[in-house]
Amino acid sequence: MAQIHQLPAQGRADHQYFKLLSGHTIPAVGLGTWKSGSKASEAVSTAIIEVSAIHIRTSLRNQLPGIAGGTRPQSCNAGRDRKKRPVHHIQAMIHWPFRLKEGAHRPPEAGEVLDFDMEGVWREMEQLVKDGLVRDIGVCNFTLKKLDKLLQIAQTKPSVCQMEMHPGWRNDKMLEACKKNGILITAYSPLGSQDHGRDLIHDPTVTKVANKLNKTQGQILVKWALQRGTIVIPKSTNAERIRGNIQVFGCEIPEVDFRALSSIRDQRRVLDGEDLFVNKSHGPYRSAADLWDNED
Ligand SMILES: NC(=O)c1ccc[n+]([C@@H]2O[C@H](COP(=O)([O-])OP(=O)(O)OC[C@H]3O[C@@H](n4cnc5c(N)ncnc54)[C@H](OP(=O)(O)O)[C@@H]3O)[C@@H](O)[C@H]2O)c1
Questions:
Q1: Taking CA atoms, which of 69, 71, 207, 242 is between 20 and 30 Å from 258?
Q2: 45-65 confidence digits (pLDDT tens)
Q3: What CATH number corresponds to the domain at position 225?
Q4: Is residue 87 very low, low, confident or very high in pLDDT (cuts 50, 70, 90)?
Q5: Is there a domain that residue 202 lies in?
Protein backbone atom coordinates (compact mmCIF):
# COMPACT_ATOMS: atom_id res chain seq x y z
CA MET A 1 0.00 0.00 0.00
CA ALA A 2 2.84 2.39 0.75
CA GLN A 3 3.81 4.74 -2.06
CA ILE A 4 6.92 6.00 -0.42
CA HIS A 5 8.99 6.64 -3.53
CA GLN A 6 6.16 7.04 -5.98
CA LEU A 7 4.45 10.29 -5.20
CA PRO A 8 3.04 11.74 -8.41
CA ALA A 9 4.65 15.01 -7.51
CA GLN A 10 5.46 17.86 -9.85
CA GLY A 11 6.46 21.46 -9.71
CA ARG A 12 8.17 23.61 -7.12
CA ALA A 13 10.48 22.37 -4.44
CA ASP A 14 8.29 23.73 -1.66
CA HIS A 15 5.19 21.93 -2.73
CA GLN A 16 3.81 18.95 -4.57
CA TYR A 17 0.85 18.45 -6.80
CA PHE A 18 -1.35 15.58 -7.79
CA LYS A 19 -2.78 15.21 -11.25
CA LEU A 20 -6.57 14.83 -11.45
CA LEU A 21 -8.49 12.67 -13.91
CA SER A 22 -9.49 15.88 -15.68
CA GLY A 23 -5.81 16.59 -16.37
CA HIS A 24 -5.77 19.54 -13.96
CA THR A 25 -3.37 19.58 -11.04
CA ILE A 26 -4.14 20.16 -7.39
CA PRO A 27 -1.79 20.97 -4.51
CA ALA A 28 -1.17 17.87 -2.42
CA VAL A 29 -1.54 19.66 0.92
CA GLY A 30 -4.50 21.83 1.74
CA LEU A 31 -5.86 23.81 4.65
CA GLY A 32 -9.13 22.79 6.31
CA THR A 33 -11.24 25.67 7.60
CA TRP A 34 -14.08 23.86 9.38
CA LYS A 35 -14.58 25.36 12.87
CA SER A 36 -12.02 28.08 12.08
CA GLY A 37 -14.74 30.73 12.42
CA SER A 38 -13.50 34.30 12.21
CA LYS A 39 -9.89 33.06 12.14
CA ALA A 40 -10.33 31.34 8.75
CA SER A 41 -9.21 34.32 6.69
CA GLU A 42 -6.03 34.82 8.71
CA ALA A 43 -5.30 31.10 8.56
CA VAL A 44 -5.63 31.12 4.76
CA SER A 45 -3.29 34.14 4.52
CA THR A 46 -0.70 32.36 6.67
CA ALA A 47 -0.88 29.29 4.45
CA ILE A 48 -0.65 31.28 1.22
CA ILE A 49 2.45 33.12 2.41
CA GLU A 50 4.04 29.82 3.40
CA VAL A 51 3.76 27.98 0.10
CA SER A 52 3.37 28.77 -3.56
CA ALA A 53 -0.01 27.07 -3.85
CA ILE A 54 -2.44 25.73 -1.34
CA HIS A 55 -5.69 23.86 -1.58
CA ILE A 56 -8.26 25.65 0.59
CA ARG A 57 -11.14 23.52 1.71
CA THR A 58 -14.17 25.65 2.53
CA SER A 59 -17.93 25.51 2.05
CA LEU A 60 -20.55 27.75 0.47
CA ARG A 61 -21.55 28.84 3.94
CA ASN A 62 -17.99 29.82 4.92
CA GLN A 63 -16.97 33.31 3.91
CA LEU A 64 -13.31 33.98 3.31
CA PRO A 65 -13.34 37.77 2.95
CA GLY A 66 -10.64 39.14 0.69
CA ILE A 67 -9.98 35.82 -1.02
CA ALA A 68 -11.31 36.62 -4.46
CA GLY A 69 -14.72 37.72 -3.26
CA GLY A 70 -15.58 35.38 -0.44
CA THR A 71 -18.19 32.70 -0.92
CA ARG A 72 -17.32 29.88 -3.31
CA PRO A 73 -17.81 26.21 -3.86
CA GLN A 74 -16.10 23.81 -1.58
CA SER A 75 -12.48 23.74 -2.60
CA CYS A 76 -10.17 26.11 -4.31
CA ASN A 77 -6.51 26.78 -4.79
CA ALA A 78 -5.31 30.25 -4.11
CA GLY A 79 -2.05 31.69 -5.44
CA ARG A 80 0.67 33.41 -3.50
CA ASP A 81 0.13 37.08 -4.26
CA ARG A 82 -1.59 38.38 -1.14
CA LYS A 83 -2.86 41.55 -2.84
CA LYS A 84 -4.58 39.79 -5.71
CA ARG A 85 -5.12 36.39 -4.15
CA PRO A 86 -6.30 34.83 -7.40
CA VAL A 87 -8.31 31.65 -7.23
CA HIS A 88 -7.01 29.34 -9.92
CA HIS A 89 -9.13 26.30 -9.56
CA ILE A 90 -12.59 25.86 -8.12
CA GLN A 91 -13.96 22.43 -7.38
CA ALA A 92 -17.55 21.59 -6.40
CA MET A 93 -18.40 18.56 -4.30
CA ILE A 94 -21.37 16.63 -3.01
CA HIS A 95 -20.71 17.08 0.72
CA TRP A 96 -22.88 14.17 1.92
CA PRO A 97 -24.84 11.76 -0.30
CA PHE A 98 -28.05 12.44 1.67
CA ARG A 99 -30.76 15.07 1.57
CA LEU A 100 -32.31 16.87 4.52
CA LYS A 101 -35.48 18.92 4.64
CA GLU A 102 -34.78 22.66 4.89
CA GLY A 103 -34.34 23.55 8.58
CA ALA A 104 -34.00 19.90 9.68
CA HIS A 105 -33.19 19.29 13.33
CA ARG A 106 -29.96 17.73 14.47
CA PRO A 107 -30.41 14.77 14.78
CA PRO A 108 -33.21 14.83 12.20
CA GLU A 109 -36.79 14.28 13.26
CA ALA A 110 -39.21 11.94 11.49
CA GLY A 111 -39.67 12.90 7.84
CA GLU A 112 -36.70 15.27 7.74
CA VAL A 113 -34.43 12.93 5.76
CA LEU A 114 -35.58 13.00 2.15
CA ASP A 115 -34.76 10.92 -0.93
CA PHE A 116 -31.43 11.78 -2.50
CA ASP A 117 -31.50 11.90 -6.28
CA MET A 118 -27.89 11.03 -7.03
CA GLU A 119 -28.32 11.03 -10.80
CA GLY A 120 -30.12 14.37 -10.86
CA VAL A 121 -27.55 16.00 -8.60
CA TRP A 122 -24.64 14.59 -10.61
CA ARG A 123 -26.10 15.84 -13.89
CA GLU A 124 -26.26 19.34 -12.36
CA MET A 125 -22.66 19.00 -11.20
CA GLU A 126 -21.58 17.92 -14.68
CA GLN A 127 -23.36 20.96 -16.07
CA LEU A 128 -21.26 23.21 -13.79
CA VAL A 129 -18.16 21.89 -15.56
CA LYS A 130 -19.72 22.26 -19.02
CA ASP A 131 -20.69 25.87 -18.19
CA GLY A 132 -17.12 26.59 -17.06
CA LEU A 133 -18.24 27.51 -13.54
CA VAL A 134 -15.97 24.94 -11.89
CA ARG A 135 -13.06 22.94 -13.23
CA ASP A 136 -13.61 19.72 -11.33
CA ILE A 137 -16.38 17.94 -9.50
CA GLY A 138 -16.13 15.47 -6.67
CA VAL A 139 -17.88 13.66 -3.86
CA CYS A 140 -17.47 13.26 -0.10
CA ASN A 141 -18.46 10.62 2.40
CA PHE A 142 -19.26 7.96 -0.17
CA THR A 143 -19.31 4.20 0.29
CA LEU A 144 -18.21 1.55 -2.21
CA LYS A 145 -21.87 0.98 -3.00
CA LYS A 146 -22.58 4.65 -3.69
CA LEU A 147 -19.38 5.07 -5.68
CA ASP A 148 -20.31 2.09 -7.87
CA LYS A 149 -23.74 3.59 -8.47
CA LEU A 150 -22.26 6.97 -9.35
CA LEU A 151 -19.71 5.49 -11.74
CA GLN A 152 -22.49 3.72 -13.59
CA ILE A 153 -24.38 6.94 -14.26
CA ALA A 154 -21.54 9.46 -14.52
CA GLN A 155 -20.66 10.98 -17.87
CA THR A 156 -17.89 12.88 -16.08
CA LYS A 157 -16.23 10.85 -13.34
CA PRO A 158 -15.55 12.56 -10.01
CA SER A 159 -11.98 13.87 -9.89
CA VAL A 160 -11.80 13.67 -6.12
CA CYS A 161 -13.47 11.75 -3.34
CA GLN A 162 -13.10 13.38 0.08
CA MET A 163 -13.17 10.95 2.99
CA GLU A 164 -12.15 10.78 6.63
CA MET A 165 -8.72 9.13 6.62
CA HIS A 166 -5.92 8.96 9.18
CA PRO A 167 -3.97 6.16 10.86
CA GLY A 168 -6.96 5.60 13.18
CA TRP A 169 -9.34 5.17 10.21
CA ARG A 170 -7.43 4.03 7.15
CA ASN A 171 -10.50 3.08 5.13
CA ASP A 172 -8.31 1.00 2.79
CA LYS A 173 -11.30 -0.29 0.80
CA MET A 174 -12.31 3.18 -0.40
CA LEU A 175 -8.71 4.13 -1.09
CA GLU A 176 -8.25 1.05 -3.27
CA ALA A 177 -11.56 1.57 -5.12
CA CYS A 178 -10.76 5.20 -5.86
CA LYS A 179 -7.23 4.41 -7.03
CA LYS A 180 -8.59 1.71 -9.32
CA ASN A 181 -10.85 4.30 -10.94
CA GLY A 182 -8.26 7.07 -11.12
CA ILE A 183 -10.08 9.14 -8.50
CA LEU A 184 -7.91 11.03 -6.02
CA ILE A 185 -8.77 10.84 -2.35
CA THR A 186 -8.67 13.93 -0.17
CA ALA A 187 -8.06 12.79 3.41
CA TYR A 188 -10.06 14.91 5.83
CA SER A 189 -9.61 15.06 9.62
CA PRO A 190 -6.05 13.79 9.06
CA LEU A 191 -5.06 14.58 12.66
CA GLY A 192 -8.11 12.79 14.05
CA SER A 193 -10.12 16.03 14.27
CA GLN A 194 -9.07 16.48 17.95
CA ASP A 195 -12.14 18.16 19.57
CA HIS A 196 -14.67 15.42 20.24
CA GLY A 197 -12.66 13.33 17.79
CA ARG A 198 -9.55 11.31 18.29
CA ASP A 199 -6.30 12.69 19.65
CA LEU A 200 -3.83 11.20 17.18
CA ILE A 201 -1.33 13.94 18.04
CA HIS A 202 -0.67 12.11 21.31
CA ASP A 203 -0.96 8.59 19.92
CA PRO A 204 2.11 6.61 21.12
CA THR A 205 3.00 5.27 17.64
CA VAL A 206 2.69 8.71 16.02
CA THR A 207 4.75 10.28 18.83
CA LYS A 208 7.43 7.59 18.58
CA VAL A 209 7.86 8.11 14.83
CA ALA A 210 7.84 11.91 15.25
CA ASN A 211 10.55 11.76 17.90
CA LYS A 212 12.63 9.35 15.82
CA LEU A 213 12.47 11.55 12.71
CA ASN A 214 12.67 14.83 14.63
CA LYS A 215 9.34 16.05 13.21
CA THR A 216 6.12 17.18 14.86
CA GLN A 217 3.27 14.70 15.18
CA GLY A 218 1.24 16.90 12.82
CA GLN A 219 3.96 16.60 10.16
CA ILE A 220 4.07 12.82 10.54
CA LEU A 221 0.30 12.52 10.12
CA VAL A 222 0.28 14.79 7.06
CA LYS A 223 3.24 12.98 5.53
CA TRP A 224 1.63 9.58 6.17
CA ALA A 225 -1.40 10.72 4.17
CA LEU A 226 0.80 11.98 1.31
CA GLN A 227 2.79 8.76 1.20
CA ARG A 228 -0.47 6.86 0.79
CA GLY A 229 -1.07 8.93 -2.32
CA THR A 230 -3.85 11.10 -0.89
CA ILE A 231 -4.34 14.86 -0.82
CA VAL A 232 -4.49 15.98 2.81
CA ILE A 233 -6.26 18.96 4.43
CA PRO A 234 -5.24 19.52 8.08
CA LYS A 235 -7.08 22.34 9.82
CA SER A 236 -5.39 24.83 12.09
CA THR A 237 -5.83 28.46 13.01
CA ASN A 238 -2.47 28.55 14.77
CA ALA A 239 0.17 30.12 12.51
CA GLU A 240 3.03 27.96 13.77
CA ARG A 241 1.03 24.76 13.37
CA ILE A 242 -0.20 25.79 9.89
CA ARG A 243 3.42 26.32 8.78
CA GLY A 244 4.57 23.06 10.34
CA ASN A 245 1.73 21.02 8.87
CA ILE A 246 2.51 22.35 5.37
CA GLN A 247 6.29 22.04 5.50
CA VAL A 248 6.50 18.31 4.96
CA PHE A 249 8.39 18.08 1.72
CA GLY A 250 11.94 16.89 1.29
CA CYS A 251 11.61 14.10 3.84
CA GLU A 252 10.11 10.61 3.79
CA ILE A 253 8.75 8.37 6.51
CA PRO A 254 10.87 5.20 6.24
CA GLU A 255 8.97 2.06 5.27
CA VAL A 256 9.26 0.47 8.74
CA ASP A 257 7.71 3.51 10.41
CA PHE A 258 5.10 3.90 7.67
CA ARG A 259 4.06 0.31 8.32
CA ALA A 260 3.87 0.92 12.08
CA LEU A 261 1.59 3.93 11.48
CA SER A 262 -0.49 1.83 9.08
CA SER A 263 -0.95 -0.89 11.69
CA ILE A 264 -2.63 1.09 14.49
CA ARG A 265 -5.41 -1.21 15.70
CA ASP A 266 -8.58 0.48 17.01
CA GLN A 267 -9.87 1.52 13.55
CA ARG A 268 -12.97 3.72 13.78
CA ARG A 269 -14.54 6.75 12.17
CA VAL A 270 -14.56 9.99 14.10
CA LEU A 271 -17.21 11.61 11.90
CA ASP A 272 -19.85 8.95 11.34
CA GLY A 273 -22.67 11.37 10.42
CA GLU A 274 -24.99 9.90 13.05
CA ASP A 275 -25.99 13.24 14.56
CA LEU A 276 -26.69 14.66 11.11
CA PHE A 277 -28.70 11.95 9.39
CA VAL A 278 -29.80 9.19 11.76
CA ASN A 279 -33.32 8.97 13.15
CA LYS A 280 -33.36 5.82 15.26
CA SER A 281 -37.13 5.38 15.35
CA HIS A 282 -38.31 6.54 11.92
CA GLY A 283 -35.28 6.21 9.68
CA PRO A 284 -34.72 5.96 6.80
CA TYR A 285 -31.27 5.65 8.41
CA ARG A 286 -31.60 4.08 11.85
CA SER A 287 -27.88 3.79 12.64
CA ALA A 288 -24.47 4.97 11.49
CA ALA A 289 -23.99 1.51 9.94
CA ASP A 290 -27.05 2.22 7.72
CA LEU A 291 -25.45 5.48 6.55
CA TRP A 292 -22.28 3.67 5.55
CA ASP A 293 -24.18 0.86 3.78
CA ASN A 294 -22.98 -1.60 6.44
CA GLU A 295 -19.52 -1.60 4.86
CA ASP A 296 -17.37 -0.82 7.94
N1 LIG B 1 -16.22 16.60 3.88
C2 LIG B 1 -16.51 16.46 5.14
O3 LIG B 1 -17.56 15.92 5.52
C4 LIG B 1 -15.51 16.89 6.16
C5 LIG B 1 -15.69 16.51 7.49
C6 LIG B 1 -14.74 16.91 8.42
C7 LIG B 1 -13.66 17.70 8.04
N8 LIG B 1 -13.55 18.08 6.74
C9 LIG B 1 -12.44 18.97 6.31
O10 LIG B 1 -11.19 18.48 6.81
C11 LIG B 1 -10.53 19.52 7.52
C12 LIG B 1 -9.66 18.94 8.60
O13 LIG B 1 -10.39 18.10 9.48
P14 LIG B 1 -10.75 18.52 10.97
O15 LIG B 1 -10.88 19.99 11.07
O16 LIG B 1 -11.89 17.64 11.38
O17 LIG B 1 -9.54 18.00 11.84
P18 LIG B 1 -7.95 17.84 11.78
O19 LIG B 1 -7.35 18.64 10.71
O20 LIG B 1 -7.71 16.38 11.83
O21 LIG B 1 -7.57 18.42 13.21
C22 LIG B 1 -7.77 19.77 13.53
C23 LIG B 1 -7.44 19.96 15.01
O24 LIG B 1 -6.06 19.68 15.24
C25 LIG B 1 -5.43 20.84 15.80
N26 LIG B 1 -4.10 20.89 15.17
C27 LIG B 1 -3.79 21.25 13.90
N28 LIG B 1 -2.47 21.09 13.66
C29 LIG B 1 -1.94 20.62 14.81
C30 LIG B 1 -0.61 20.27 15.19
N31 LIG B 1 0.41 20.34 14.34
N32 LIG B 1 -0.40 19.84 16.47
C33 LIG B 1 -1.44 19.74 17.34
N34 LIG B 1 -2.72 20.05 17.03
C35 LIG B 1 -2.96 20.50 15.78
C36 LIG B 1 -6.32 22.00 15.46
O37 LIG B 1 -6.24 23.01 16.44
P38 LIG B 1 -5.68 24.51 16.09
O39 LIG B 1 -6.60 25.09 15.05
O40 LIG B 1 -5.75 25.19 17.39
O41 LIG B 1 -4.28 24.30 15.58
C42 LIG B 1 -7.71 21.34 15.49
O43 LIG B 1 -8.16 21.24 16.83
C44 LIG B 1 -11.69 20.37 8.05
O45 LIG B 1 -11.26 21.64 8.46
C46 LIG B 1 -12.63 20.37 6.87
O47 LIG B 1 -12.20 21.33 5.93
C48 LIG B 1 -14.44 17.68 5.79
A1: 242
A2: 888 877 756 677 777 554 444
A3: 3.20.20.100
A4: low
A5: yes
Q: How far is the CA of 89 from the centre of ligand 1 (A)?
A: 22
| Residue range 258-287, pLDDT digits in tens | 999 999 999 999 999 999 999 999 999 999
Residue nearest to atom 13 of ligand 1 (CA): 189
Asked if residue 232 belongs to a domain, the reply is yes
Total domains in the fold of the chain: 1
Cα(176) to centroid(ligand 1), Å: 24
Question: Residue 296: inside a domain, yes or no?
Answer: no
The residue range of the domain holding 248 is: 17-291
Mean pLDDT of 88-103: 89
- Residue 169 Cα to ligand 1 middle (Å): 15
Look at strands 113-114 and 136-140 and give their pairing: unpaired
State in Å: Cα 15 to ligand 1 middle.
20
pLDDT category, 155, cuts 50, 70, 90? very high
Strand partners, 198: 193
Answer whether residue 295 shows pLDDT above 90: yes
Is 7 contained in some domain? no
Q: Is the CB of 241 within 6 Å of ligand 1?
A: yes
Q: Which atom of ligand 1 is nearest to the CA of 219?
A: 31
CB of 195 sitting under 6 A from ligand 1 = yes
Cα 166 to ligand 1 centroid, rounded to whole Å:
11
From 100, 235, 238, mutation site for ligand 1 pocket: most ligand atoms within 8 A of C-beta: 235
Burial of 234-256, coded b for 16+ CB within 10 Å and e otherwise, reads: bbbbebebbebbbbbbeebbeee
Ligand 1 neighbour 91 (Cβ under 6 A) = no
Angle between helices 172-180 and 144-153 (to 10 degrees): 20
Ligand 1 pocket member 269 (CB < 6 A) = no
CB atoms under 10 Å from CB of 98, counted, come to 18
